[in-house]
Write a structure and sequence with these properties.
Elements: E1 3-7, H1 11-20, E2 26-30, H2 38-42, E3 51-52, H3 56-61, E4 63-65, H4 71-76, H5 79-89, E5 94-96, E6 101-104, H6 109-122, E7 126-128, E8 133-139, E9 142-148, E10 153-155, E11 158-161, H7 176-183, E12 192-194, E13 198-200, H8 204-207, E14 212-222, E15 225-236, E16 240-242, H9 244-258, E17 264-268, H10 275-288, H11 307-314, H12 327-338, E18 340-347, E19 355-357, E20 378-380, E21 388-389, H13 394-410
Parallel strand pairs: 1-2, 1-11, 2-7, 11-20
Antiparallel strand pairs: 3-6, 4-21, 5-6, 8-9, 9-10, 12-19, 13-16, 13-18, 14-15, 14-17, 15-16, 17-18
């Protein structure tokens, strides 16, 4: 019989608790908040995007940092296995939506948390709420337990650190795990806000505040090379841009931005048609509005709030009659619609970031077990590790997989 201590009652911590319980093991989970799963509660806009039902190739393609590190963890607890666990064992009906995103049928993240709590209670997991761990106790590079905020100690055979990252700090993710990792000899990479809205340099972005664009293609460009592009939705805000496509793209550029490197964004407002086809359509629109002012000819092509900005950028006099617009001016207009330009100034902060990029170096963790390579009996799981992915349920899958593997390994159910 082993005693396993888990620090953090988020997705990775609760999954680790379920995996470690059984076989006579005693599992104690410490959570500094008044309840478990605070970050789960707000994921997917309160609906909880449990995982993604795509095949394994797509899953690994969607992991931005250190996908190879995830092989053992993912195949120990795949997305299919997670869905089966939630439905068969926890009794939570799931549904698959656009982009293979998986949600509870009820659209309530609270159902996911309640199901995990029921399962932990059934497996006799001791949950200590409002209890903050202050430090790890080690001796001769072996974990011995933890010291709590009141000075008390709790001894254990294994400790799993599942404290989360540094984003959404109101949920308790305040970076505690990074400090413990450093103190026990682990490398912690620089951390950055990721899946985060972006600030842009152009003043006209603020004029477009509230404008939501659907079915556009957004490309992120560095040194004249596209480093990420995707189709989908985006939103203009008072500071810049947000929305699913922007959040995903941010994870590929955040390190460059923090280094001061220039990142341009090009938005194709009509990705379904080529430049030539769009030019023909513009010609047709102009033909039907030949005696109108240029400013009154774009209503069928563009959202109303975007028209003044496009006119300004095109350099075409807004009062010019449509039949006087030159071929060169028309080509310039088409070019703008196919490549609306923005320049990234900065990312928003950690409190607006969905996840943290960076963390405990994967070089210091055994990928087959999630055990530290420096401290025997110490394991890491979830966002505290330097692994992150795009939106769509992939980050929760990372938490479930690493948590399950860490829990199994700590309980001696896998060869360490």
């Amino acid at each position: 019989m082993s005693k396993i201590i888990i620090i953090g009652g988020g997705a990775a911590g609760m999954m680790a608790a379920l995996a470690a319980s059984g076989n006579g093991n005693k599992v104690c989970l410490y959570e500094k908040n008044e309840k478990t799963g605070k970050k789960i509660y707000i994921t997917g806009k309160g609906r909880c995007n449990v995982t993604n039902a795509s095949d394994s190739e797509q899953v690994f393609k969607s992991i931005v940092s250190n996908p190879k590190f995830m092989y053992s963890a993912f195949y120990t607890m795949t997305n299919d296995m997670i869905m089966d666990m939630f439905q068969s064992e926890l009794g939570i009906a799931l549904k698959v939506e656009r982009g293979n995103r998986v949600f509870p049928e009820s659209d309530k993240s609270s159902d996911i948390i309640a199901g995990l709590l029921r399962a932990m209670k059934k497996r006799n997991v001791e949950i200590h709420l409002n209890t903050e761990v202050k430090e790890l106790i080690t001796e001769n590079n072996i974990i011995k337990g933890v010291r709590l905020h009141d000075g008390a100690t709790d001894n254990g055979d294994s400790v799993i650190v599942a404290t989360g990252g540094f984003s959404y700090q109101a949920t308790g993710s305040t970076g505690d795990g990074y400090g413990w990792a450093k103190k026990t000899g682990h490398n912690v990479t620089d951390i950055f806000p990721a899946l985060v809205p972006l600030e842009v340099k152009e003043e006209y972005a603020a004029e477009l505040q509230g404008l939501s664009l659907k079915n556009v293609k957004v490309s992120f460009i560095k040194n004249n090379k596209i480093i990420y592009s995707d189709f989908g939705e985006m939103l203009f805000t008072h500071f810049g841009i947000s929305g699913p496509v922007i959040l995903s793209g941010s994870s590929y550029i955040v390190k460059s931005i923090k280094k001061g490197e220039k990142i341009n964004i090009s938005i194709d407002l009509k990705p379904a048609i080529s430049k030539d086809t769009l030019d023909a359509r513009v010609l047709r629109e102009f033909g039907e509005a030949s005696n109108k002012d240029f400013r009154n000819s774009l209503g069928n092509l563009l959202p109303k709030s975007l028209i003044p900005v496009i006119i300004k950028l095109s350099g075409i006099n807004q009062f010019k009659k449509v039949n006087e617009v030159t071929k060169e001016e028309r080509k310039r207009l088409v070019g703008l619609i196919k490549a609306f330009p923005l320049t990234v100034k900065d990312t928003r902060g950690f409190n607006e970031a969905i996840i943290t990029q960076g963390g405990v170096s994967v070089k210091d963790i055994n990928p087959a077990t999630m055990e530290s390579k420096h401290i025997k009996g110490l394991f890491f799981a979830g966002e505290v590790i330097d692994v992150d992915a795009l939106t769509g349920g992939y980050n929760l899958q990372i938490a479930w997989s690493t948590g399950w593997l860490a829990g199994q390994s700590a309980a001696g159910q896998r060869c360490l």
